[in-house]
Amino acid sequence: GNSVTQMEGPVTLSEEAFLTINCTYTATGYPSLFWYVQYPGEGLQLLLKATKADDKGSNKGFEATYRKETTSFHLEKGSVQVSDSAVYFCALLEGGGTSYGKLTFGQGTILTVHP
Amino acid sequence: GAVVSQHPSRVICKSGTSVKIECRSLDFQATTMFWYRQFPKQSLMLMATSNEGSKATYEQGVEKDKFLINHASLTLSTLTVTSAHPEDSSFYICSADRPPLNYGYTFGSGTRLTVV
Q1: How far is CA B102 from CA A42, A88, B10, B18, in A?
Q2: Which of B113, B66, B116, B61 is nearest to B91 (CA)?
Q3: Which of A82, B14, B77, B104 could be B33's S-S partner, Cβ–Cβ 3.0 to 4.6 Å?
């Protein structure tokens, strides 16, 4: 079956530091990949996505590249801000088969950015 | 665009009562909606897939009779927690599909249920 593995947190950084949150996946087909962000007490917001190999998703300074050869979709940001403190979820969406339409989430990584 | 409204955001109920949570797609039609449960500091667990006009499909281990799902229209799905108990206390989140499929889903803001 499909699975998503994220680096364990929590991750604590100082403002303007470089961020990497690792994400690897296992899928039977050709999934689309996503990063979602969840702020305290809220639902999930789509941060960025990539639908095929070598695609790069980007938004608000965050980037992630769909690497089929390493089955990875690592999230990066060059300079984090305090407002980036949240929980980040990597997810995959299977485009076919029995898991069609279902999002599979990683376990989430808590990011805390200090001034 | 692509807004999903979830209501209520917080609810406290007594043990044994039922609670209804609504999920509405405000500016698009959603043939499929999903219901998740999230425990503190954990990931989202898919509970069920709700299809407009048909019965919901529940994930293994989720009690159909406890978590009643109704998807009566293309813009509304409801989750009713029946005979709630303290162990049902959790954060419930809905999401709706917005074509094309690989767009990813739009999530509601979640409902914090506390059963006392």
Answers
A1: 23, 19, 31, 35
A2: B113
A3: B77
The residue of chain A nearest to residue B42, with distances taken between CA atoms, is A107
Instruction: Tell the residue number behind the tokens 């403002």, with chain if given.
Output: A15
Residues whose CB falls within 8 Å of the CB of residue B66, separated by 6 or more in sequence, listed in order? B81, B82, B83, B88
Instruction: List chain B residues with pLDDT less than 70.
Output: 1, 99-104
Within 84-103 of B, beta carbons closer than 8 Å to A belong to: 93, 95, 97, 101-103
Using 70 as the pLDDT threshold, list the residues of chain A that sit under it.
95-100
Distance CA B79, CA A62 (A): 34
pLDDT for A53 equals 92
Identify from B43, B50, B93 which residue to disrupt to test chain A contact, counting A C-beta atoms within 10 A and taking the largest count.
Answer: B43
Residues 6+ apart with CB under 8 A from B63: none
